[in-house]
Design a protein that fits this description.
elongated; about 110 residues; single chain; about 75% helix; 5 helices; mainly alpha
Length: about 110
């Protein structure tokens, strides 16, 4: 049985789309479990979401469902990570350092 070249190209594209889009899932799961996102750059996520949005538009122009679905999911996953970065970043802010007044003894404060 010989595989048609267009079917082969679609399979390769589908495999690539599955791997690259699925690569976000470990980070999403880890962020959800740990509620920590401080090591993830918001610039990376914003730029990547911008790129996947443009790829999505390209897929629509070309009417290529593999490109459309992969980049729709990629954009959604990136926006989810960006949201998690914002929410978990607000929760995990370290407490402010003690003021110099609170470090002094009670007698010095008078």
């Amino acid at each position: 049985m010989q595989l048609d070249s267009s079917v082969f190209v679609t399979l390769v594209g589908s495999a690539a789309a599955t791997l690259t889009t699925g690569s976000f899932l470990p980070q999403i799961i880890r962020a959800y479990r740990t509620k920590k996102m401080q090591d993830v750059s918001p610039y990376l996520m914003a730029l990547f979401a911008s790129g996947t949005t443009l790829w999505l538009a390209y897929g629509v122009f070309k009417a290529d469902w593999v490109i459309i679905i992969a980049n729709l999911l990629g954009t959604a996953f990136n926006l989810l990570l960006l949201y998690m970065k914002y929410v978990y970043g607000r929760r995990s802010k370290p407490p402010p350092p003690p003021s110099s007044q609170s470090l002094s003894s009670p007698d010095e404060a008078r």
